[in-house]
Structure prediction request, 329 residues.
Amino acid sequence: MAKIGNIDLGKFPLLLAPMEDVSDPPFRAVCKEGGADLMYTEFISSEGLIRHAVKSKQKLDIFEYERPVGIQLFGGDIGNMAESARIATQVNPDLIDINYGCPVKAVACRGAGAALLQDIPKMVRMTEEVVKATHLPVTVKTRLGWDEKTKNILEVAERLQDIGIQALTVHGRTRVQMYKGEADWRLIGLIKENPRMHIPVFGNGDIDSPEKAMEYKNRYGVDGLMIGRAAIGYPWIFREIKHFLATGEKLPPPGLSERISAARKHLNFSIRWKGPKLGVFEMRRHYASYFKNFPDFKPFRTKLVEAPTAEQVHHFLDEVENTYSLAEV
Prediction:
């Protein structure tokens, strides 16, 4: 049974990864319905929170139906990270997560995200100050190391546990790898084998099918899995993995009507959160994923992306349903 503080996540939880410009409340809503056990906000800049930047403050929005939900913070200044944890605590999430894994230059070049993998003492001090700044459980998401020569995650895991984090998620790549190549889970498995480790350890990277989830669960002994890109446009990945782990049988993929229903719900959540104009605009990045592998879908994607109002989007979704309901997809 995986527990983070007093949060009981069940026997083998599936976590939704925090993804910039993806893991907003509307996306989290459809993933929660799909079976995600724990979700995180998009990562939030500690400097942005302290300066009361509108975009950073808006990312603090969480809703009761999402729980348990964590707020993920990133930054390069220890004092600012501690202060941002105090600010985030005020909106009453279930936990605070620190991002030590984001590899993108805009983050790492500011000494944040995966950049901390080059300065483990600073990472430990920063984590300790965040733990002190909040009464909530603090968790960490990170990578194996900065590059092939510095895969120091075994040491990092122990040191972060020792100063009070209550769960650790590890992405099986180095910062230099970005998202290329295959994730290497061997070191994640070694963290779990370490008799000194007693907090939950979650694995992340390349989990895109129920079969792979089963294989990695059994091979590496992790306490749960974090799923990111495989959930974009496919929130059913969570229920499919859970069913396969429980029964050894694969659920049939969602049919046309279920895909359209999810896209409509996602759009409606987006409008409720961002308003009619921005809600329609921000939903545009998701349509291609919901209807991935549909033959000759490009004209419909163009219509959906160019539709200026929710009414027109729903009209074009009706067209999609009518067109493909008689076809094999």
In short: The chain has a mean pLDDT of 90. The radius of gyration is 20 Å.
